[in-house]
C-alpha cells in the first residue's frame, strides 16, 4: 500500500474578531509564562547581598554545582570560596554543603567538604546533606532534617534568586550571596534554564511537596553550633 502524505493546513484568522482573540490569547500566554519569573524576582529582591555586606547568620548553605574528575567544578569552587571567606570573617559559624550523592561514584558533598577543609574550615564546622537533589529539596531538607532557621545562601547570581524564593517558602530566614562567574556558555545556559525552572519553583512553593528523600532528623547543624 502506498503511503499517503497528509497535508495539514493552518487556518489563519480571517476576521477582525478572530485576530483580536488570537492577540489576547498570545498576551495571556506571555503573562502567565512570566508570572513565575516575576514572583522569583520579587521574593528575592530585598534579600540580595554581597560577601562584604551580608548579615551574619548561623549557617551558610552552599548548593552543589557539579564535579570535574571528582573535584568541585569551577562554578562550585567559586561558591565554596565565598563560604570560606564568610567563615573566616566570622559571618557564619557552620557550612551546610548540599548536593547530589544519588550514586556511589558521584559524591558532591564529600568533594565540597574536602575543598573547604583544605582551605581552613574545620571539619566539625561542616555538615553534609547528601540528598540535595535540587534547590527545593535542599531548602526543605535544611529545615525539616537539619533544623536550619536562618542562613546565608551561596550560589551563582543567575540561581540565587530562585534559591532565596524557595528557601523562604520552606521557612528559612535567608539572605543570598550571588558569586561572580565568567559569562561563558555555562553561564548563559544557566540563565536561560532559570526562566523555565521558575515555573517549577512557583509550583513547589505553592504545594510544598516533600523532598525525594526525607529521612530522619539529623542533629549535625545543632551540634556544630553548640561547639
From TrEMBL:
This is ElyC/SanA/YdcF family protein. Residues 59-177 form the DUF218 domain. InterPro entries: Cell_Envelope_Assoc, DUF218. It holds the Pfam family DUF218. The lineage of its organism: Bacteria, Bacillati, Actinomycetota, Actinomycetes, Kitasatosporales. It comes from Streptomyces roseoverticillatus.
Amino acid at each position: 500500500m502506498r503511503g499517503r502524505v497528509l497535508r495539514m493546513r493552518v487556518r489563519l484568522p480571517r476576521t477582525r474578531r478572530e485576530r483580536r482573540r488570537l492577540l489576547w490569547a498570545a498576551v495571556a500566554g506571555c503573562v502567565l509564562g512570566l508570572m513565575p519569573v516575576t514572583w522569583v524576582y520579587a521574593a528575592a529582591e530585598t534579600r540580595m547581598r554581597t560577601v562584604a555586606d551580608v548579615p551574619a547568620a548561623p549557617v551558610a548553605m552552599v548548593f552543589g554545582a557539579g564535579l570535574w574528575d571528582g573535584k568541585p567544578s569551577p562554578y562550585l569552587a567559586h561558591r565554596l570560596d565565598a563560604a570560606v571567606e564568610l567563615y573566616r570573617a566570622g559571618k557564619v559559624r557552620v557550612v551546610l554543603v548540599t548536593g547530589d550523592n544519588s550514586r556511589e561514584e558521584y559524591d558532591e558533598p564529600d568533594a565540597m567538604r574536602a575543598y573547604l577543609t583544605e582551605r581552613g574550615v574545620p571539619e566539625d564546622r561542616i555538615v553534609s546533606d547528601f540528598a540535595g537533589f535540587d534547590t527545593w529539596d535542599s531548602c526543605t531538607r535544611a529545615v525539616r532534617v537539619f533544623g536550619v532557621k536562618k542562613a546565608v545562601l551561596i550560589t551563582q547570581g543567575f540561581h540565587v534568586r530562585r534559591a532565596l524564593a524557595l528557601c523562604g517558602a520552606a521557612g528559612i530566614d535567608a539572605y543570598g550571596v550571588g558569586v561572580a562567574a565568567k559569562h561563558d556558555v555555562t553561564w548563559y545556559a544557566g540563565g536561560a534554564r532559570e526562566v523555565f525552572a521558575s515555573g517549577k519553583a512557583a509550583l513547589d512553593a505553592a504545594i510544598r511537596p516533600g523532598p525525594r528523600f526525607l529521612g530522619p532528623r539529623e542533629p549535625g547543624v545543632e551540634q556544630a553550633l553548640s561547639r
